[in-house]
Every structure is written in structure tokens, then in C-alpha cells.
Amino acid sequence: MKAYVLRFGPYSAAVDRRTAVTLAALVVAALGLALLGLCQGATWASPVEVLRALAGQGDAVVVITEWRAPRVAAALVFGAALGLSGAIFQNLTRNPLGSPDVIGLDSGAYTGALVVITMLGGTSAQLAVGSIVGGLVTAAAVYVLSARGGLSGLRLIVIGIAVNAILVALNSWIVLRAELEVAIAATAWHAGSLNGVNWEDVLLPFAVIGVLAAGAPFLAHAIQQSALGDEVAMTSGVDLPRLRLLLVLAGVTCTSTVTAVAGPIAFIALSAPQIGRRLAGAPGVPLAPAALTGAVLLLAADLAAQLLLAPISLPVGVVTTVIGGCYLIWLLYREVRRA
């Protein structure tokens, strides 16, 4: 297998050529969509006007840099975070259905945010903490329940689906018991939207996601070993309990951070890792293609949300649900034919 060797001082890594080409193509697609997102709005701005605005020149500086750029950046970073979280949990469960939205982590993060909104008023910091705590509590519950009798990926997914159903019912009850204004805001936020996002909303989430993304390469080798089986991983020196704990913490923090700002955005974490894996032709679920695919998918979905009923902008979660639903039907059909 042909590969490129990348060197960073004392560190080196071999990257398969197909994976390298896939990553380059995804980066180009993300940049192209980002430029389109900066051009698209209530009025169309040409690429030349966008580039001039980014350089601080022209009449569209405020519109491009303060209104459109935060939304485009949020779509890219949040999509990458969801793709990374999905890849982490699909590696952990060794199952293409093992994503945060399927096993209840999105619903748990939403529960934590709902508690903050209804009881504390819901500042940005409180929402972030509430979402992360809700996601972590849900992950701990699913992990403890599925670990009884031996941890199994399929068992974890089934229990996660059951916990998700309970949390959906709990969230509906909280919304029904809340005051009308709070209930309307919580219901709209639950759809998952990037409308109205500004730099103040995203700077802290970007920092958290950046730290997690920077640490992901150091776990990549251990993740690859664990994907070969517990026995192979342990014989190669992988500390499985510690690795699983780190993966759960990283995955929950990624998806909960996104939920705190944009609400639960469904199915990106489910579909992006598998699409990225197939594009790269990788045997496992590699982290980098999953993250870049998630960024491209979410940005494309947000552009579609702006254009479908223009000038009305749909919540991006509506579009990702349609994309993810089609993907899930295809995945189930493929698994049934294989059986």
C-alpha cells in the first residue's frame, strides 16, 4: 500500500495516498462551500467583494465578517466536532449505528440545557455546563447499564436507544411544564439552528473543540488497535479502560459543546464517519476524514437550509435530519441484504 510519510520534528506518521487525496479533496470542498456561504445572504456578494471584506476593505465588511463569517465558521467547526464525536463512538462500539444521537447523548445534553433554561435563565456559560453535564450523566448511565455482563457494542447501542426514548419523553415533559415563552424558545432551539450565531457565541466552544481536536491524533493509534479487538489491543499495550474513559469524555464534550450553542443537530455524527471511511477506503473509522466530512456536510446542509425557502431560513437540523434519515434507510437496507 502506497503511503506518504509526514514528519513533525521527532514525530512521524504514514498516511495512505488515497486517504491523503480524500483529505485534500474534502479541504477544497470545505473552502469552496465556505466561500459560497460568505457570498450567500439577503443580498449576493461576489467572491471579489468577500475577499475584499475579509481584508477589511469595501462596504460589506460588517455584513461579511460579523454576520456571515461566524455562521460559516460555526458550521465548519461544529460539523467537524460532530463528525469526530461520531467516529469516536463508532470506534468504541465497533458499529456504524454507534453515534451520539442514536445512543441518547444528544438528548441527554438537551436535557441538561433544558434544566438550565427553565431553572436558571440560561446564560451561554450555564448552557455549556448544563449540556456537558447532561451528556456526561447520560453517557455514564448508558455505560454502566451496558457494562453489566460484559461490555458489548450492540448492547450499548440497544440500551442507548432505550435511554434516548426515556430522555425524549422527559424533555417533552419539561417543555410542557415550562412557561410559554421558555417553551417556545426551547422548542425552536431543539430543532438545531445556526441562525443568529455571532462571534461571542462561538469563541469558547471553538476553544474547547480545538483542544479536543488537537489531542485526537495522540489517541488515533490506540483507537486503531482497539478496533482490532480487545485481546489484540491489550497485547499491544493499550490500556482499554483508560482509553474508553478518554474517548467517552472527548466524544460527549464534542457533541455537548455543539448542542449548547446550536441545539441538537441530528445525524451528522451518524453519517459523516461512515461516508469519510468509504471515501478514504480505510478499514476502520479514521478520525480526520470523519471530521472533515462532518464539516462539509453541515456547511452544505446550512446552505440548503438558507436557500430552500428563501428568504426564510430553515433550522439546519431539519435538513440534516432528512440527510441522515435517507442515510439510515440505506444503511439498514444494506445490512439486511448482507444478512
Plain-language structure description:
It holds the Pfam family FecCD. It is found in: Cell membrane. It is a multi-pass membrane protein. The chain crosses the membrane at residues 69-90, 102-121, 127-146, 153-174, 180-197, 202-223, 243-270, 282-301, 307-333. InterPro entries: ABC_BtuC-like, ABC_transptr_permease_BtuC. With 339 residues, this protein is mainly alpha-helical. The chain has a single domain (17-338), classed as ABC transporter involved in vitamin B12 uptake, BtuC (Orthogonal Bundle). The chain has 13 helices and 2 strands; from the N terminus they run ββααααααααααααα. It has helices spanning 17-39, 47-54, 61-93, 105-120, 124-147, 153-177, 180-190, 199-227, 230-235, 240-262, 268-280, 287-307, 316-338, and strands at 3-8, 11-16. Strands 1-2 form a two-stranded antiparallel ribbon. β1 (3-8) and β2 (11-16) form a beta hairpin. It is globular, with a radius of gyration of 20 Å.
Could you give a short description of this structure?
With 339 residues, the chain is mainly α.
Radius of gyration: 20 Å
- Which structural category fits the helices and strands? mainly alpha
In the CATH scheme, what's the topology name? ABC transporter involved in vitamin B12 uptake, BtuC
CATH architecture: Orthogonal Bundle
Q: Roughly how much helix do the residues carry, as a percent range? A: over 70%
Low-confidence stretches: none
Shape: globular
Report on the biggest sheet.
2 strands, antiparallel
Q: What is the CATH level 1 assignment?
A: Mainly Alpha
What's the number of structural domains? 1
Number of strands: 2
Q: Give the rounded overall mean pLDDT.
A: 84
Separate helix tally: 13
Tell me the strand percentage band.
Answer: under 5%
Question: Going across the major beta sheet, what is the strand order?
Answer: 1-2
The CATH superfamily label reads ABC transporter involved in vitamin B12 uptake, BtuC
Distance between the termini: 30 Å
Instruction: List the secondary-structure elements in sequence, H or E.
Output: EEHHHHHHHHHHHHH
Subcellular location: Cell membrane
Keywords: Cell membrane, Membrane, Transmembrane, Transmembrane helix, Transport
Transmembrane segments: 69-90, 102-121, 127-146, 153-174, 180-197, 202-223, 243-270, 282-301, 307-333
Organism: Spongiactinospora rosea
